[in-house]
Structures are given as structure tokens and as C-alpha cells.
Design brief:
alpha+beta; binds adenosine-5'-diphosphate; 326 residues; binds magnesium ion
Length: 326
């Protein structure tokens, strides 16, 4: 069977019947959606380029999942509920096995989050995937980066650093003999969970939030910059899984936790008087979370503490243009 762009779309991507609020999905010049009364739409786009955002040998199943997960993480960070997405797919050639695996994994994830694929673009070229996601929120409940207030407690969900460890394994930078640990860490890298429920739960509690894609300190710095404040961070409180602590030197796992990217956990700030409601709310949805420090008045400044003493620490998270700095 001879494939062209339209057959690819029909066969692999146009699978879902139009759902609520989608007036027109795939198949016309634009998708048309209706916005419910009183709500706003959050929009976010992420591009994944082969060799930059994913390794050449990644399976289409993992890629289909991760492409959506990283986009959903941005909606989670603003407390928005995912609704729709568009997919711009650039592929070097038509490989039907690859397309089948990729589209099935992608659409499975789309269904899991009760979303609908409403459009996109299909072109030929070096493998690259751009997804835009659209979600709902209420205007007054959006979790901005600019909302942190002096005295807020700083929290992160889950644990940090395992994704960076998984990447180091995939890049063959480290060798591990223990098969189950090896698998656990690689899964952490390839299969991050976007903290959608957590983001929604934080709507009326957090002053500000961001998702950790480039590294805890680099991402928290965005909150500091946008909110014109600083942060005291207690290194003893950084949540790191026992698997990392048991298998690597402290210097290594701490660096992964502070500077490694792609954990896709949430970092958020909460006024102290909401500590109890935070506990009740996050315990109800069974989310581990840890207080790692406090917002200060010192603009853009980190004070890093270890064993109660202030120490010097270099921030070194992911930056695409690091090597090209003028
Ligand atoms: P146009 O030429 O008008 O831009 P296209 O031929 O690119 O339209 O796309 C036809 C329809 O298929 C449109 O509704 C578009 O949104 C959708 N579409 C194209 N590529 C994809 C894709 N990879 N996934 C989902 N929908 C797609
Ligand atoms: Mg087009």
C-alpha cells in the first residue's frame, strides 16, 4: 500500500470520535473547540528533537508516551486540566511498524488523560515531534511562577535525580551490574509521570509552581526571578530515593537531584498558614512531598545550607545554548 501524508493521518492518528467541546477535530483546516463558561485555556508547546531530547535508539512506544508526558507536565505546573492536543510529526521515512507503535502508545496516553488529539501536521525530515497541549483552569486558580511571597515554604513532589541517573545509564556514562536497579532508573527517565492531579490539588493552596524539567535549582530560579525573591535551601532535605543513595556516592546523587533534569516533579511555594491544608490535600491523593526551604527577600539569591551551615554551591542545570554563549 502506498502511503501519503493523508493516509498516515487517517490510519494512525484519526482514531477518536469527537468528544465534548470539540466542534471539529482532525480533518479540516482548523480544529474548532468551545470554551466552557467561566474558564480559561492554558496552552503549552514542546518540541522533542532526535539526538537532543531523546536518544537515537529510543523505542517508538517510549517516545509516544514521553512526548505527551513532558507537555502535560507544563499543564500540571499551572494547575490546569488537560483537554486537547495537536501533534506535528516530522519523520525521515514511512516506517509502518514505527508509526503503529508510536501512534498506539501516544493515543493510549491521550485516552488515559481523557484528552483528544484534534489536529497537527505531518512532514518529512529529521525525526522531530512537536506537541501542543490545551487545558482548562479558572482564572483565579492558575499557578504562576510569579506568585511566590517572602516567607513561603518551598516544596517538591516525589523524589529527584533518578531520571538523570537513568539517562547516564542509557548514555553508557555509568555501568550498573544490578539489573532491577538499572531497569528502575531507565524507567524513571523514559516514563515520567506528569503531576496533573497534584497540580489541580494545589490550585487553591500554592502561591507559585513550576515543573522540574531542567533541574531543581535552575527551575526554582525561574520562580525567584519572576517573583523577585530569593530562597534558602536545606540540602539535607532534598528528597532522593534510597535506590540512588545506596548505589551512588552522595556527591553524585546530590548533583543529579539538584542539577539533573527531567524528573518532571513539581516545585511549588505555599504560605506557612496553609501547611495543614496542604498536608491534608496531598495525603488524600497519596502524593509524597517534601519541604526543602523557604522564600527570602534577597532577589535571585540562593542560600544553600548543609548540616545547618551555609555552603558554596554552583548551579549547573540543563541549558540548550550553554556552549554557544557569547
Ligand atoms: P493543511 O494542509 O490544511 O494544513 P493537513 O493536510 O496538514 O492540512 O492536515 C489535514 C488534517 O489532519 C488537519 O485537520 C490536521 O490538523 C490533521 N493532521 C495532520 N497531521 C496530523 C497528525 N500528525 N496528527 C493529528 N492530526 C494531524
Ligand atoms: Mg498542514
Amino acid at each position: 500500500m502506498l502511503y501519503n501524508e493523508f493516509k498516515i493521518i487517517e490510519k494512525y492518528f484519526n482514531k477518536i470520535k469527537t468528544k465534548d467541546n470539540v466542534i471539529k477535530g482532525i480533518g479540516d483546516d482548523c480544529a474548532i473547540i468551545k470554551i466552557p463558561n467561566g474558564q480559561i485555556i492554558s496552552i503549552s508547546t514542546d518540541t522533542l528533537v532526535e539526538g537532543i531530547h531523546f536518544l537515537r535508539n529510543i523505542s517508538p512506544i517510549d517516545l509516544g508516551y514521553k512526548a505527551i508526558a513532558v507537555n502535560l507536565s507544563d499543564l500540571a505546573a499551572m494547575g490546569s486540566k488537560p483537554k486537547w492536543l495537536t501533534l506535528s510529526l516530522t519523520i525521515p521515512k514511512i516506517n509502518t511498524t514505527w508509526l503503529k507503535d508510536f501512534s498506539q502508545s501516544l493515543l493510549k496516553t491521550v485516552n488515559k488523560y481523557d484528552m483528544q488529539l484534534i489536529g497537527g501536521d505531518t512532514t518529512q525530515g529529521p525525526l522531530s515531534i512537536t506537541i501542543s497541549v490545551f487545558g482548562y483552569n479558572f482564572k483565579k486558580q492558575i499557578l504562576f511562577r510569579h506568585g511566590a511571597k517572602i516567607g513561603d515554604l518551598i516544596y517538591v513532589t516525589g523524589t529527584l535525580g533518578a531520571s538523570a541517573a537513568g539517562l547516564a545509564i542509557l548514555q553508557k556514562k555509568i555501568l550498573l551490574r544490578k539489573k532491577n536497579i538499572y531497569k528502575f532508573l531507565i524507567k524513571k527517565h523514559l516514563h515520567p509521570y506528569p503531576r496533573i492531579l497534584q497540580g489541580i490539588a494545589l490550585r487553591k493552596i500554592a502561591h507559585s509552581a513550576i515543573d522540574i524539567s531542567d533541574g531543581l535549582l535552575v527551575d526554582l530560579r525561574h520562580i525567584l526571578y519572576e517573583s523577585q525573591c530569593g530562597a534558602d535551601i536545606n540540602l539535607n532535605k532534598i528528597p532522593v530515593s534510597n535506590i540512588l543513595k545506596k548505589n551512588f556516592y552522595p556527591k553524585v546523587w546530590l548533583d543529579w537531584a539538584l542539577n539533573g533534569g527531567e524528573d518532571y516533579e513539581l516545585c511549588f511555594t505555599v504560605p506557612e498558614f496553609k501547611k495543614n491544608i496542604l498536608k491534608k490535600t496531598l495525603n488524600k491523593i497519596k502524593v509524597p512531598y517534601t519541604c526543602i526551604g523557604r522564600i527570602t527577600k534577597y532577589k535571585n539569591k540562593f542560600n544553600i545550607f548543609k548540616n545547618g551551615k551555609k555552603i558554596k554551591y554552583t548551579i549547573n542545570g540543563f541549558n540548550h545554548f550553554k556552549k554557544n554563549k557569547n
